[in-house]
């Protein structure tokens, strides 16, 4: 079997060469199998299910799918009249310098605010409300992580909140109404 190379040139003139041993028949068979399974199962098919359908190894399916993943240009024209670029409708994931400064100041004030608490109170509040890792934990999860009873977590949380309410003016500027 002859090795086929696909050359892709990007706007910045860099080149990516994707070498593969696939022919269009295998790719079409893979696509059909994937669509049929999705319709039958009512969800996207897993790589294992696709592999079983076309009598291939899951590693081969993964390789096939990666080889034919095609990049899409942000300059691609979309819409009925092709008057809008794709990059115009995609959300901007970056934050502005102003937002960055506000986040930095908020973090500094939050750390000062939490500094008023005892270490165990600070840990409970941070875990319960997702400060630091952005994942809020339930009372039961916090209790398991700190190896204490859930009732104790609730008690510590209530004490900490009571204490912080007296100092709430410090963070009022950041509250969104």
Automatic annotation (TrEMBL):
GO biological process, alphabetically ordered: DNA-templated transcription initiation
Record-level Gene Ontology MF annotations: DNA-binding transcription factor activity
Domain of life, per lineage: Bacteria
InterPro entries: RNA_pol_sigma-70_dom, RNA_pol_sigma70_r3, RNA_pol_sigma70_r4, RNA_pol_sigma_r3/r4-like, Sigma-70_RNA_pol_init_factors, WH-like_DNA-bd_sf
Name of one Pfam family that matches: Sigma70_r4
Ranges for domain RNA polymerase sigma-70 region: 32-100, 113-166
Organism: Nostoc minutum NIES-26
Protein name according to UniProt: RNA polymerase subunit sigma
């Amino acid at each position: 079997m002859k090795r086929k190379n696909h050359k892709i040139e990007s706007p910045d003139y860099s080149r990516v060469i994707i070498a593969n041993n696939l022919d269009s028949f295998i790719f079409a068979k893979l696509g059909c199998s994937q669509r049929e399974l999705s319709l039958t199962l009512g969800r996207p098919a897993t790589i294992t299910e696709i592999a079983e359908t076309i009598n291939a190894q899951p590693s081969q399916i993964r390789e096939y799918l990666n080889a034919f993943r095609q990049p899409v240009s942000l300059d691609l024209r979309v819409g009925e009249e092709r008057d809008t670029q794709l990059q115009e409708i995609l959300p901007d994931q970056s934050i502005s310098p102003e937002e960055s400064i506000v986040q930095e100041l908020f973090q500094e004030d939050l750390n000062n605010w939490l500094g008023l608490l005892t270490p165990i109170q600070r840990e409970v509040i941070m875990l319960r409300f997702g400060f630091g890792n952005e994942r809020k934990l339930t009372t039961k999860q916090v209790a398991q992580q700190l190896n204490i009873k859930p009732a104790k977590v609730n008690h510590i949380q209530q004490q900490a909140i009571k204490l912080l309410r007296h100092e709430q003016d410090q963070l009022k500027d950041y509250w969104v109404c």
